[in-house]
Amino acid sequence: MSGMSTTENSPESPQEPDSSRAAHRGRPLQTEFNDGRDYPRLGSFSFRRGTLTDNQENTWDENWPHLGRVLDENPVTADDQVIDLDDWFGRTGHDTIVEIGSGTGTSTAAMAPLETDHNIVAVEIYRPGLAKLLGSVVRGGITNVRMVKGDGVEVLQRMFAPCSLAGVRVYFPDPWPKARHHKRRIIQTGTLHLIASRLKPGGILHVATDHADYAEWIDELVNVEDDLEYLGWPDDPAVRDETVPVLTDRQIITKFEGKGLDKEHVIREYLWRRR
Ligand SMILES: C[S@@+](CC[C@H](N)C(=O)[O-])C[C@H]1O[C@@H](n2cnc3c(N)ncnc32)[C@H](O)[C@@H]1O
């Protein structure tokens, strides 16, 4: 991916996909992946390993087993991975929001303490980013955040039941600016359909981007999914609070957003409600 994962910040940048069958290493090919439709599986990418500091490794070893999960990509064992959210969060009756591509979790950790009634699941493919969020969660005593390592699209499909989520967040997704890579963009017809299927009626999809071309791309897609009612972006936070039942103020300018703002990029935000 081209944001965090292809900048100098990411030691885990994806390489050009190998289109051969061998590259799938026994995993099912994309055509067997239903809801994501034409979204290319990240399983066809190889990733450079990111490194953690000793401190992060210790925090990881101690806390990941109860606060984190890894998507099982093995087609043989991966069948029944749907998360029992009440069990994982140790409480019942709380709605869940999934953030796809949480990066280093700066906004995740800033928002979660303001939405303690919600379970927050941050999904990221970049382990050092998850390690940073894990550190913030542990140090900050944040109790309503859990993490999944894996491709957010596959995680949504395999680990969350239909109609189970109150919200899905996609903040500053990798823009994949080259035309031949547009099919890798997270926001596209098939993934909007998948997201809609995982949201419960009234659930909210919130997307933000600073990338003008990606924004134009999203503009074309705002009404493509019948189950998602496009709400636009009311600039007034009070109006947003009245319109949607989840927190929409991202609280903090992340490094990626800051870089965009430095280049005088315009931040575009989008909200949809599951019908
Ligand atoms: C540009 S960064 C933005 C990070 C963060 N949301 C922020 O605003 O600072 C995009 C992030 O999405 C992650 N990412 C890209 N594709 C993903 C996918 N399919 N599933 C999960 N994470 C993904 C990348 O590793 C990267 O950390």
UniProtKB/TrEMBL annotation:
Pathway: tRNA modification; N(7)-methylguanine-tRNA biosynthesis. One of its GO terms (molecular function) is tRNA (guanine(46)-N7)-methyltransferase activity. It holds the Pfam family Methyltransf_4. It catalyses: guanosine(46) in tRNA + S-adenosyl-L-methionine = N(7)-methylguanosine(46) in tRNA + S-adenosyl-L-homocysteine. It comes from the Bacteria. One of its GO terms (cellular component) is tRNA methyltransferase complex. PANTHER family: 3-DEOXY-D-MANNO-OCTULOSONIC-ACID TRANSFERASE/TRNA GUANINE-N 7 - -METHYLTRANSFERASE, PENTACOTRIPEPTIDE-REPEAT REGION OF PRORP DOMAIN-CONTAINING PROTEIN. This is tRNA (guanine-N(7)-)-methyltransferase. It comes from Corynebacterium variabile. The lineage of its organism: Bacteria, Bacillati, Actinomycetota, Actinomycetes, Mycobacteriales. The gene is trmB.
